[in-house]
């Protein structure tokens, strides 16, 4: 299973690297619009969201705009023990390279349970299948977080349109998501 996942991740990573800057910009604008509509539909006052890398559909402008509108946004910060701490996003928040070279906020850290109070979770993914199973990037941070929550809010993964697949390989610890956000649409895949 690990080899199958690793091969699929490598293929998806390579496809993302071949996208033009114009395609990435267009995708980011589309994701921003879709995430705005999703947050409004769920009457969100607080959410968690990841800071996108250059290869991912852009979430950073959505985060900035949500903060401007008064939504409390928690951003993940990786820990060596496999858990996530959280930091509250600010309009002019400093960003640094985190544990795995990913963009993470600099500032006061809240513990892993801080995410228990959000109305919506926006998570990264390599791909999502039509059953709602998410293929992450292999470290398990979001699977552990989602799996440990007593009352998990709706969870939506952000991917490119071509990354919604018929099936993704899964292990026992893999956690499903409730929906997926792409540059052109938002799909609800399952109800919690």
Structure description:
The chain has 192 residues and is of the alpha/beta class. It has helices spanning 2-17, 21-41, 60-68, 141-148; strands at residues 46-48, 72-78, 84-88, 95-97, 103-105, 120-124, 127-129, 134-135, 155-158, 164-165, 179-181, 186-188. The chain has a seven-stranded mixed beta sheet. Strands 8-7-10 form a three-stranded mixed beta sheet. A two-stranded antiparallel sheet has the order 4-5. A hairpin with a 5-residue loop joins β2 (72-78) and β3 (84-88). The radius of gyration is 15 Å and the shape is globular. The mean pLDDT is 93.
- Amount of beta strand: 15-25%
Q: Main β-sheet, in a few words? A: 7 strands, mixed
Query: Class by helix and strand content?
Result: alpha/beta
Shape: globular
Report the average pLDDT across residues. Answer: 93
Low-confidence stretches: none
The DSSP helix count reads: 4
Let me know the number of strands. 12
Give, in order, the helices and strands. HHEHEEEEEEEHEEEE
Estimated radius of gyration: 15 Å
What is the CA–CA distance across the termini? 26 Å
Helical content (DSSP H or I, runs of 4+): 25-40%
Strand order of the largest sheet: 3-2-1-6-9-11-12
TL;DR?
InterPro entries: FTHF_cligase (IPR002698), FTHF_cligase-like_sf (IPR024185), NagB/RpiA_transferase-like (IPR037171). The chain is an alpha/beta fold.
Provide keyphrases for this structure:
192 residues; alpha/beta; 3-stranded mixed β-sheet; FTHF_cligase-like_sf; metal-binding; 5-formyltetrahydrofolate cyclo-ligase; nucleotide-binding; ATP-binding
What order do the helices and strands come in, and which of them pair?
Layout: H1 2-17, H2 21-41, E1 46-48, H3 60-68, E2 72-78, E3 84-88, E4 95-97, E5 103-105, E6 120-124, E7 127-129, E8 134-135, H4 141-148, E9 155-158, E10 164-165, E11 179-181, E12 186-188
Parallel strand pairs: 1-2, 1-6, 6-9, 7-10, 9-11
Antiparallel strand pairs: 2-3, 4-5, 7-8, 11-12
